[in-house]
Design a protein that fits this description.
mainly alpha; 10 helices; Arc Repressor Mutant, subunit A
């Protein structure tokens, strides 16, 4: 577990705020982040983060730290009997609560790195789940896990970046419909 101080959170919030204001990654500097966070650049460098990359990495980590524990509980401790119940009761409400940060991750130029981060982190867990449930398909479990993770997060991103996303309870029904439909079904 990584401990993040209140001042480090303030720095991350300043970084997020700059992204929300439409600043590109190239325009965001440590000096701008420090000013937005109400501290000197030296204080930021010496006491909190030494680079924008560190701030971005911590933002990714904090956006995801509780989710990872919940997914591991599901996959390795069999805390829920089925994936649908886990999704409805745990995952969708989690993302809904985190939607302000999630929206930044899915609507700014961070999206490519964020998607890669999610795929690398969750693909092995989904692959393990497929092995546990005895999933045998024409495609490898690795291929299926990558497809599942990418499709899942694409649906989540589309849901949470709407102007007024539905509540998790209402959205779960839509999620079921999307996940049970093939691309062919959705197009025809």
């Amino acid at each position: 577990m990584v401990i993040t101080s209140a001042k480090q959170r303030k720095v991350i919030e300043a970084y997020i705020s700059l992204l929300q204001e439409g600043h590109s990654e190239e325009m965001i500097t440590m000096k701008r982040i420090a000013a937005k966070a109400g501290m000197s650049r030296g204080n930021l460098y010496h006491n909190h983060f030494s680079s924008i990359r560190q701030i971005r990495d911590r933002f990714f980590y904090l956006s995801d730290e509780n989710l990872e524990a919940k997914v591991k509980d599901f996959v390795f401790n069999h805390k829920y009997d089925e994936a649908g119940v886990f999704l409805e009761r745990v995952i969708l409400p989690y993302f809904y609560e985190q939607r302000a940060w999630i929206e930044v991750l899915f609507t700014t130029e961070l999206i490519s790195e964020w998607n890669m981060y999610l795929t690398q982190k969750y693909m092995p867990m989904v692959e393990e789940y497929l092995i546990q449930i005895g999933k045998k398909e024409k495609f490898s479990n690795s291929f299926l896990a990558q497809l599942i993770v990418r499709e899942f997060f694409a649906i989540i991103a589309t849901w949470l970046t709407q102007k007024s996303p539905e509540s998790p309870l209402l959205f779960y029904k839509e999620f079921q419909r999307f996940s049970k439909s093939s691309l062919y079904d959705l197009l025809n």
